[in-house]
């Protein structure tokens, strides 16, 4: 299964990038901590602990943010958090994929998922790189428009989530 | 949004807070791929699915142990469902012997998925209800769960044993020829009476021995007519009759016996009805032929023990379900309170046969002789024997059925053929 191999690879990259980040700043306890987290995550995956992926993803994300505060190279953290996201996503996807009845269905679902994940990852990396590297001077008007757009987008998300929660399921009377 | 979605939101906000707190744009930028991931999940979150399910069963009515193939067609008439998890709800006590009841796949608009599996079940009435569907977008952050109705019913009927049923003698028979002595003279096999010769009587019927004793008169042998009769089978399904146990295994034997007897009497051409008296009253009104057989097996397939405070005794037996002066066969372990009701049934003119499975021996198992249990067992058996004796003395035929003996063996013991053979054996050579 490609997804499983990719998951372990992503995990390795995430931990490796973070260890490198901490090592470059000479924070050796941080390196040991990240290494230990990586090992626990792998162990949890092997032993099929349900909670492990989410917990480790949360911890690695926070550690990625913290290592930036000590002026570690930002590209390493970008790689780390993106790889952690992939590992986290794939761990749940593999769990769902195991329920697929035939290998053919599993292959189809896997291909669709990986394609979409790759797209999101590449887009995320590009945007993140742009955000870190590019410096744009915004005037008040520009900032105001962007702020308005962000607010509108946030309201849309909230409205959509609320709509989904309130709508009755098929076959059930509305409350 | 599920728990993973909220976790992602938490991570994003944590990065934002750390970035804002430390005035570090790089930390905020780390949240970008996560935001993009969440945005993609929101964009592709499952819309209102137009999913329909239809169930097919290879057979609708079966006997126990016969495998049934269930085929569930799930069709997506709505937008594409990227990930769909279909889980069929199999009724309890049904065993899946082949295939799987769940399916994880992807369904394009207009596409259909088929879930196929094989089940086996014991006697009973099984109802398939809903199919649980979970639709997710590709990242699994947003999901919708709903139950699609795909109702179906499977009745597993008891398998009747082929047997020659017990001999019965109801007070009244029906107009058609059959195997049951009708207490009326006519053509038949068994000798009935001798009467004076009437012109038109066939010569071979003249009783020459009696005629030789008289001077002028001739006498004719009259045989007993054999006809079909009305037979009503009452299956006792009261929990208290089975030691206050729900679904007592002895009840299965009683159901089996009811099915076998009904089949036997129907095969002889009799009109047979069935009444299951327990948690409620279920009946197959008297009828003949193969259709009636199906009706009776259907009712027996659904039969189960139950407790109903209104039906604690047999007092409320709807006796009108059976024609007057017909044969009633009660299959019941019997409790003390049943005796007056049986007497009143007899008084109403019914011929009553009680087939009583021995619940005490059945439940006792192997009690060691000399132990305390053995004395209790002896007392309980004595009490039961007394009750059966009382019923017998009230003019009813009682068959004490030790269920170690199969019903067909028991029926053979009480059948016409066996009685005739015994009578022959008793004759002086």
Summarize the structure.
By secondary structure, chain A is mostly helical. Chain A has helices at 2-24, 28-46, 52-69, 74-97, 103-133, 140-166.
Summary keywords:
A: 175 residues; mainly alpha; 81% helix; globular; B: 429 residues; alpha/beta; Immunoglobulin-like; 11 helices; 16 strands
Number of domains of chain A: 1
Report the major sheet of chain B: 7 strands, mixed
**Which overall shape of chain B is indicated by the principal axes computed on the Cα atoms?**
elongated
Helix-strand pattern of chain A: HHHHHH
Helicity level of chain B: 25-40%
Overall number of strands of chain B: 16
The ordered string of helix (H) and strand (E) elements of chain B is HHHEEEEEEEEEEHEHEEHEHEHHEHH
CATH topology of the largest domain in chain B: Rossmann fold
Number of strands of chain A: 0
Low-confidence residue ranges of chain A: none
Report how far apart the termini of chain B are.
93 Å
Shape of chain A: globular
CATH superfamily of the largest domain in chain B, please? Answer: von Willebrand factor, type A domain
Q: Estimate the strand proportion of chain A.
A: under 5%
Distance between the termini of chain A: 45 Å
What does the oligomeric state look like here? heterodimer
How would you describe what is shown here?
Chain A has 175 residues and is mostly helical. Chain A contains six helices and no strands. Chain A has one domain (2-134). Chain A is 81% helix and 0% strand. Chain B has 429 residues and is an alpha/beta fold. In chain B, strands 10, 11, 12, 13, 14, 15 and 16 form a seven-stranded mixed β-sheet that branches. The model of chain B has no long low-confidence stretch (mean pLDDT 86). Chains A and B meet through helix 3, helix 4, helix 5 and helix 6 of A and helix 1, helix 2, helix 3, strand 4 and strand 6 of B.
């Amino acid at each position: 299964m490609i997804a499983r191999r990719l998951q372990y690879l992503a995990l390795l990259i995430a931990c490796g990038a973070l260890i490198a980040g901490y090592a470059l700043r000479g924070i050796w306890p941080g390196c040991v901590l990240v290494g230990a987290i990586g090992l626990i995550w792998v162990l949890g995956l092997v032993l099929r602990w349900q909670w492990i992926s989410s917990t480790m993803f949360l911890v690695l994300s926070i550690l990625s943010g913290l290592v930036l505060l000590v002026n570690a190279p930002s590209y390493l953290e970008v790689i780390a958090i993106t790889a952690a996201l992939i590992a986290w996503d794939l761990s749940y996807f593999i769990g769902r994929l195991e329920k697929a009845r035939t290998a053919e269905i599993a292959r189809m679902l896997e291909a669709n998922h990986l394609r979409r994940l790759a797209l999101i990852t590449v887009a995320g990396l590009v945007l993140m790189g742009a955000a870190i590297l590019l410096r744009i001077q915004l005037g008040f008007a520009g900032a105001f428009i962007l702020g308005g757009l962000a607010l509108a987008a946030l309201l849309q998300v909230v409205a959509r989530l609320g709509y989904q929660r309130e709508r009755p399921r098929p076959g059930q009377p509305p409350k | 949004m599920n728990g993973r979605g909220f976790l992602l939101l938490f991570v994003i906000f944590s990065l934002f807070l750390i970035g804002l707190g430390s005035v570090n744009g790089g930390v905020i930028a780390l949240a970008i791929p996560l935001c993009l991931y969440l945005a993609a999940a929101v964009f592709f979150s499952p819309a209102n699915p137009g999913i329909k399910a239809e169930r097919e069963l290879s057979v609708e009515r079966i006997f126990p142990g016969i495998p049934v193939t269930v085929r569930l067609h799930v069709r997506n008439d709505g937008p594409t469902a990227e990930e769909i998890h279909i889980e069929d709800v199999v009724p309890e006590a049904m065993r899946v012997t082949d295939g799987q009841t769940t399916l994880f796949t992807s369904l394009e608009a207009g596409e259909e998925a088929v879930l196929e599996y094989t089940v086996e079940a014991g006697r009973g009435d099984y109802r398939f209800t809903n199919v649980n569907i979970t639709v997710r977008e590709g990242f699994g952050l947003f999901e919708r769960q709903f139950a699609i109705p795909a109702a179906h019913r499977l009745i597993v009927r008891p398998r009747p044993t082929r047997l020659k049923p017990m001999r019965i003698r109801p007070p009244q028979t029906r107009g058609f020829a059959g195997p049951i002595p009708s207490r009326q003279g006519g053509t038949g096999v068994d000798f009935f009476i001798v009467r004076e010769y009437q012109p038109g009587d066939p010569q071979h019927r003249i009783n020459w021995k009696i005629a030789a004793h008289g001077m002028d008169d001739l006498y004719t042998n009259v045989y007993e007519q054999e006809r079909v009769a009305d037979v009503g089978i009452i299956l006792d399904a009261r929990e208290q009759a089975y030691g206050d146990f729900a679904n007592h295994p002895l009840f299965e034997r009683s159901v089996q016996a009811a099915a076998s007897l009904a089949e036997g009497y129907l095969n002889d051409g009799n009109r047979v009805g069935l009444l299951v008296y327990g948690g409620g009253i279920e009946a197959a009104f008297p009828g003949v032929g193969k259709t009636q057989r199906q009706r009776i097996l259907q009712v027996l397939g659904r039969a189960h023990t139950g407790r109903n405070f209104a039906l604690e005794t047999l007092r409320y037996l709807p006796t009108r379900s059976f024609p007057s002066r017909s044969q009633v066969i009660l299959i019941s372990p019997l409790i003390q309170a049943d005796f007056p009701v049986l007497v009143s049934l007899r008084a109403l003119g019914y011929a009553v046969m009680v087939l009583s499975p021995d619940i005490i021996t059945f439940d006792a198992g192997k009690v060691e002789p000399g132990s305390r249990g053995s004395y209790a067992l002896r007392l309980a058996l004595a009490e039961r024997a007394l009750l059966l004796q009382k019923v017998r003395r009230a003019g009813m035929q009682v068959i004490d059925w030790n269920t170690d003996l199969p019903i067909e063996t028991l029926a053979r013991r009480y059948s016409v053929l066996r009685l005739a053979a015994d009578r022959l054996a008793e004759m002086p050579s």
